[in-house]
C-alpha cells in the first residue's frame, strides 16, 4: 500500500510509513483504544487517497484533529495525530476548541455542489 501523505512511499505490513511517521489504522481499533466512540467535531473533504481503494478520503475532525478517513477501509493519522486523538478521547473534561455550527458543513457542501454544477 502507498502512503497517503508521501504518495511515493510504501506502508509497512503494520500500516506505518517510515518516511513521514504516519499510520493507517482500522477505525474500530481506534474506537477500541479510545474506549468509546470517536467525537467528530467538523470536517471537510481530503485531497488524499485511500491506500486500499485509491478513492479520495473525507477529512473529519476527530476531537478537533483533522484525520483522513475512508469509510470503507480505515483512517490515516499523520505523525503524532493518533496519540493526540487518544489523549483527548480519554480526557474527562475535553471540549472542542470552538463550537461547530452543524449547518456550516451543509452550507459548504451545497456551495461545492453549486460550483461543480456551474451555478
What does this structure look like?
This protein has helices at residues 27-34, 81-90, 102-117; strands at residues 23-25, 40-49, 56-62, 65-66, 68-70, 74-77. It has one domain. With 119 residues, it is an alpha+beta fold. The mean pLDDT is 83. Strands 1-6-5 form a three-stranded antiparallel β-sheet. The protein has a three-stranded antiparallel β-sheet with strand order 2-3-4, covered by helices on one side. A hairpin with a 2-residue loop joins strand 3 (56-62) and strand 4. The longest helix is centred in the C-terminal third of the chain and has 16 residues, at 102-117. 29% of the residues lie in helices and 24% in strands. It contains three helices and six strands.
Amino acid at each position: 500500500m502507498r502512503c497517503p501523505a508521501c504518495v511515493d512511499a510504501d506502508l509497512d505490513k503494520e500500516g506505518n510509513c517510515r518516511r513521514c511517521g504516519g499510520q493507517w489504522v482500522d477505525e474500530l481499533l481506534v474506537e477500541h483504544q479510545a474506549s468509546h466512540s470517536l467525537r467528530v467535531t467538523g470536517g471537510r473533504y481530503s485531497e488524499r487517497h485511500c491506500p486500499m481503494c485509491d478513492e479520495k478520503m473525507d477529512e473529519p475532525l476527530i476531537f478537533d484533529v483533522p484525520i483522513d478517513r475512508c469509510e470503507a477501509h480505515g483512517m490515516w493519522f499523520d505523525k503524532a495525530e493518533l496519540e493526540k486523538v487518544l489523549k483527548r478521547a480519554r480526557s474527562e473534561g475535553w471540549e472542542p476548541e470552538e463550537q461547530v455550527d452543524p449547518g456550516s458543513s451543509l452550507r459548504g457542501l451545497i456551495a461545492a455542489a453549486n460550483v461543480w454544477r456551474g451555478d
